[in-house]
Amino acid sequence: MMQPHAEDCQERLQKINAEFEEFSYIVSHDLKAPVRAITNLASWIEEDLEGTLPEDSQENFRLLKNRVGRLEKMIQALLEFSRVARLQLETGAVDVKSKIEKLAHEVAENRELKLTISGKIAPLETYAEKLTFVLGELLRNAIFFNSKTQPEIKVELQENAEALQITIADNGPGFPETSLPKLFTMFYTVLPKDQLETTGAGLAIVNKIVNFVGGKITAGNHPEGGAVFTLTWPKKMPSAN
Question: Where are the beta strands (DSSP E) in 69-162?
Answer without folding.
Answer: 91-94, 114-119, 124-127, 152-159
